[in-house]
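Recap quiz, item 2
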Amino acid sequence: MKTIVKILAAGLVTGSALSAVTVMAQDYPNQPVTIVVPFAAGGPTDTVTRLVAAAMSEDLGQQVVVQNVGGAGGTLGAGQVAAAANDGYTLLLHHIGMSTAPALYASLPYDPMTDFAPIGLVTEVPMTIVARKDFEPATLEDLIAHVKENGEDITYANAGIGAASQLCGLLFMDALDTKMTEVPYQGTGPAMTDLLGGQIDMMCDQTTNTTSQILAGEIKAYAVTTSSRIAVLPDVPTMAEGGVENFELGIWHGLYAPAGTDQAIIDRLAASLQKALTSETVGTSFAELGTYPVQASEATPAALAQKLEGQIGLWAEVIAAAGVSAQ
Amino acid sequence: MDLLSSLALGFSVALDPINILYCFIGVLLGTLVGVLPGIGPTATIAMLLPITFTLGPETSLIMLAGIYYGAQYGGSTTAILINLPGESSSAVTAIDGYQMARKGRAGAALATAALGSFFAGTVATLLLAFFAPPLARAALNFGAPEYFSLIVLGLLVSIALAHGSILKALAMIVLGLLLGMVGQDIYTGTPRFTFGVRELFGGLNFVAVAVGVFGVAEILRNLENEKEREVGVSKVSGLWLTKDDIRRIIGPVLRGTALGSVLGVLPGGGHILSSFASYSAEKRLSKTPEEFGHGAIEGVAGPESANNAAAQTSFIPLMTLGIPAHPVMALMIGAFILQGITPGPNVINQEPALFWGIIASMWIGNLLLVILNLPLIGLWVKMLSIPYRVLFPAIVLFACIGTFSINQNIYDIYAIAFFGIVGYLLIRFGCEPAPLLLGFVLGPLLEEHLRRAMIISRGDPMIFIERPISATLLGLALLAVIVAVLPSIRKKRNEVFVEDD
């Protein structure tokens, strides 16, 4: 008898709690939603977020505000969202750095797998392997031979520890089983300046930063890091075409809520994200950035969770093999 | 297309009533955020980026550019009136500008800043129109070794910034260099002087340090003596320049414009050096160097012109090569991209209306700024008659809000408080905060370029001597040291440095 009462009581409590949550979720959103970008305003991640936020505002019927919390390789902003209330009003839009931070930082104030509820993938920006315009090799095959032969005599620019440009370089050197001289910069902007001036030999960077320089003939492009050629650079081969298999790398961006956010709210946000990504404005603006929105099937919690888990494993290996640490 | 028809095209775009309106809105907003301590053009442009979605590319970029150079005008206003520089460039203006204000010459200092900036802006805009592409090409010859040598030269020459003992000035530069090392080392990722605080990984915020050592320290100094408390300006003698003033500022304005125009083109940090370099040059050339630091009008005219000229010419690498010289320029790239234009070498050919329109609008914007600012001088000066107990808490509050709004980092506010106390102690010990800020700003650049040059040369220091530009700059630096050490000149140097001891 006592047990039955307990079960009934428990049922009542859960029931009322559930209905409270349901009311909250039905009501959602009834105030502006904040998306935290863990990088400075004006950068590529910020631009992507602002475009998506504007489109989601329309669908959600509430302002979606973008807040920049930069610093410590994106871990400050991510940590802030991990600690935020899980009511669906504070979200995080982070890129590939979400999956590399656990390998780069000895101690993180959050766990990317358990402290966040994934909402969906947003975009995957292709990267390009480029060099100063008077760099000797003519084709991708020539480049691979040249790099294997000259190794550390080749200078290779990146945007510092953990940056996508560094990871791309690590993968490249790993694939060719050689070492080049890494030259870190404060971001790929200044690195591009030195590449244009012929001060350094090579770089690997997002299409957002390299496309216009490639098209103007100011730098040489040897390869794209996607599985197939990309529309804006039809003449640039993929790494596979040059004989390097399994070299696929994109700056993928995902949208997250703090862990424990109500499933109904997550579903609502995922639906809104999918709608935003299929809108024409987002499509054309992304194309101008040299990227494209992911398929609707990928803008889902399951797809992002899978991506995140796979990438954390991959980068743990690559980063440990290269002996890189941010702390 | 020849230059005249290009400029005509530019002015036809810039003189479009809508564009004039947005240019005006831009420079007005810029002036306001420049005047409010802490809130800089970076934060403002970041906040306004989404709004520019709905405007045409020309209109939105004209407005954003206006915010940037408008803020350069506004920043000097607070530096002069209340010793609160919001940007590294106006830190130099604060040295003599604030002393002029204390002597009741705030109006003259503000007028000098406005006129010097307008002249420099006009010249730099012309340079931009005539020589943008070749200048940008030339700037690309500057690699890590050249920047390192340039900064060494800048640091050695800038010891003239101090007007007290040379030893204290050196100590302040070194302290500044050390403070600049706080944060994550970009080469290895090792955190330095962060005490495990993740918020310090990005380093100390310049605005927080500047507001602390200049502004808050000055407030503490004033609070020290209840009776003799200064209200910045007690009596204001004349808002306008005298004939003698005009005679004195012509040379500094011309030299500042030339220095600033050249340094602004260098994307690796040249614009930061411009005002410091101009101040040092004026002090060296002056027949009365002992006046510097005590309200020398040349110390306002030179750096202000240099700073504004550099602000304009720093658009050259952005517009002709698509590379940003500093964070504001990076935001401008974001604005270009949002408009569907990828900044790069092709903009000048593919979007001539945009390219020349922005250039023409800069001149119009500078004109608007003078028209806007000269009548406002009287108003700004009146602001100083607000009771001290109301004015200064308000300033500190604004500074904190502004600084916090950039990165939402609470440690920036702690830094204001901490450096306020440090700055006060420095005043008590007779040390100057300006060399400290110089070290703080240039230290990280110095280290970055030194280490990068050494990586590229694979550890061979000869790279600094083998490259002609770098060797020339180091030669000049050596010359500066020799001149300072030569006995015949030492007598003069003693006059320069020791009059305070």
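Residues 267 and 325 of chain B are 4 Å apart (CA to CA).
Chain B touches chain A through 53 residues (CB under 8 Å).
End of item.
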